[in-house]
Design a protein that fits this description.
Length: about 120
């Protein structure tokens, strides 16, 4: 068995190990991972520090809850149930709402998420 067959295929394109392009992609992916984990972490630390310093208002709490519910609905009902499994019928405005709300979570694109779940 060759070593190339052990390397997973991405989008039907065979990958070869050890090419500079793969190592460059790995470095970019690693830096992107640090960025996508680091920035929200810094934002959370900043938000907690701001809340401790300036206090929370009812508006802050309501906005948090509303945005949390919208984003959760977009991920669970939109990206997972509708776009991946087509579990229900939806009108065009509902499709747009679910797509936008799911994208607000910044987890994945609709296309990539559906392809990954289908495979």
């Amino acid at each position: 068995m060759s070593t190339d067959s052990a390397i997973p295929r991405v989008s039907g394109i065979p990958r070869t190990s050890g090419t500079p392009r793969d190592s460059e992609r790995d470095v970019f992916a690693s830096r992107l991972a640090y960025l996508t984990v680091g920035l929200p972490t810094l934002g959370t630390i900043g938000a907690v520090a701001y809340a401790l310093y300036d206090g929370l208002t009812a508006t802050d709490v309501v906005l948090f809850v509303v945005m949390f519910v919208i984003t959760s609905l977009g991920v669970e009902a939109g990206l997972h149930r509708y776009f991946t499994h087509r579990s229900f019928e939806a009108s065009e405005p509902v499709k747009v709402f679910l797509g936008v709300a799911g994208s607000m979570a910044a987890q994945t694109s609709q296309e990539f998420g559906c392809q990954a779940a289908a495979s």
